[in-house]
Amino acid sequence: MSAPLRVAIVGSGPAGFYAANDLLKRDPASRVELFDRLPTPGGLVRSGVSPDHAARREVIATYERLAMASHRFRFHGNIEIGRQLTHEDLLRCHHAVIYACGSAGDRRLGIPGEDLPGSHAATSFVSWYNGHPDFAAQSFDLSCERAIVIGNGNVALDVARMLLLGHDRLHPTDVADHALRAFAESRIREVVVLGRRGAAQCAFTTPELLELGHHDLDVRVEHAASAGAKPAGRDARAYAVQLKLRLLDEYAARAALPDARRLVLRFLNSPLAIVGRDRVETLRVVRNRLVSGGRGDLVAESTGEISEITAGLVLRAVGYRGLPVVGLPFDAARGIVPNVGGRIVGENRRPMRGAYVAGWLKRGPSGVIGTNKGCSQETVACLLQDFAGDRLPIPDIDDQGTQRLLTERCPDRVDYLGWKKIDRHERLGGMDQQRLRVKLVDLQRMTAVASGRF
Ligand code: NAP
């Protein structure tokens, strides 16, 4: 063991910050350096959480403040591991590296027409309206009257709500300027959210479903009644399903609001093909019934009853997907880095010395922000055990050498003070317009602001 413990964390989303705090707390001598590809910390808290759910960002803000306040912690933004620095570089400067880079890809449907203009991954749409620099130049045509969102998770409800909220509700938020302008001109009046299974199997959570009733939307429910019996039992899961079914019953019983924007929750329908000559015109769907999946679950089976829904925009919200990280093993089927409790394992399930993983890249894209806390703690516990047991490699570059290497390889890196300059710039920009903040979406402008050149 060569104290003090020095750890690099790659990815500054919730899993990265939870891991940093846990390390700083549990080993009072440890030093942590947090790297992010973007100049801004936060990961999906900045570019995934819905702009109208700003309060959810506070869950992680406390952890961000705690870490940033510690003299044993450093943030290095605008550095891509695998490009400017390699895994080996990080291990020459640290005893261990924790990868917490999330799931940056998206899952596909594998149906005809998926690449027609007007058909997109919901994850891209989310990144676009949240001002992620990689997606700022994309465009989404909102000139049609109906959009379809495929999938029954929280992302599906987020994008459906964003499409229908309207400019006045979105203006005070930190939605990206380009998206605010597009939403102001949007002609979308109806969003159909398509679930392949029934209401009792939906993946969205109760607060998200409840919230739909608070936005003067005309919420319609189709094919929920046949969605399977209400689960018996008193455990938390059965209770959550019962609550969601009760809410859906209430929405179904409401009088229609003919002048309001409409949100249709249509269950038991699978997409078959996205159809159109030059762009999306209709979605061909098939009605499903539920049958036993053989493992105590219910799966969708086609009834053969086919219909078409006219729409100009189709967003597939069928899940995120982890992407390989240069230098690490990858389980392509699950989209994760193979690991045991957070220790990255290679062939024969042998641990890679000094390499760990936390968050979605460890367990797949599931759970809410807080789920990452326990996940990161488990990883940190393994790392600390390995440090105590002398099972970590010894870095051969000291702290000064590390900073020299960073200056040499990453001249445009953005440190904590640089991020605070961006933060202040964005908040001040928002103040003039009675908005939470006006996000910077251009990397060059961000680095200029961070370095005080703007
Ligand atoms: P998700 O929760 O895994 O939901 C994916 C949905 O896509 C499921 O309904 C799934 O249906 C459906 N699906 C998958 N393949 C399909 C196909 N080929 N055809 C039709 N439907 C298909 O994924 P997500 O919505 O991307 O969310 C990811 C994670 O982030 C979740 O843990 C979520 O709770 C979290 N999140 C939370 C919030 C929040 O707290 N507000 C907001 C956004 C995201 P089956 O069930 O039938 O497979």
Task: Give structural notes.
The protein is an alpha/beta fold and 454 residues long. It has helices at 14-26, 44-47, 58-69, 87-93, 122-129, 154-165, 167-170, 177-185, 206-211, 236-253, 360-363, 371-388, 399-409, 416-431, 443-450, and strands spanning 6-10, 31-35, 73-76, 96-99, 105-106, 119-121, 146-150, 190-194, 218-222, 262-266, 269-275, 282-292, 298-310, 313-316, 320-321, 339-340, 343-345, 351-357. It has a seven-stranded mixed sheet with strand order 3-2-1-4-18-17-16, sandwiched between helices. It has a six-stranded parallel sheet with strand order 6-14-7-8-10-9. Strands 11-12-13 form a three-stranded antiparallel sheet, with no helix packed on it. α1 (14-26) crosses α3 (58-69) and α5 (122-129) packs across α6 (154-165). It is globular, with a radius of gyration of 23 Å. The two termini are 45 Å apart. The mean pLDDT is 94. Bound molecules: NADP nicotinamide-adenine-dinucleotide phosphate (NAP). The site of NADP nicotinamide-adenine-dinucleotide phosphate (NAP) has 24 residues, from α6.
Primary descriptors:
seven-stranded mixed β-sheet; 15 helices; binds NADP nicotinamide-adenine-dinucleotide phosphate
The low-confidence parts are: none
Percent of residues in beta strands?
Answer: 15-25%
N- to C-terminal distance: 45 Å
Identify every distinct bound molecule in the structure, by name, code or SMILES. NADP nicotinamide-adenine-dinucleotide phosphate
Strand neighbour order, sheet with most strands: 3-2-1-4-18-17-16
pLDDT averaged residue by residue: 94
Helix content: 25-40%
Q: Please tell me how large the radius of gyration is.
A: 23 Å
- Overall geometric form: globular
| DSSP E strands, number | 18
Give a short account of the largest sheet: 7 strands, mixed
SS field, number of helical segments: 15
Structural class: alpha/beta
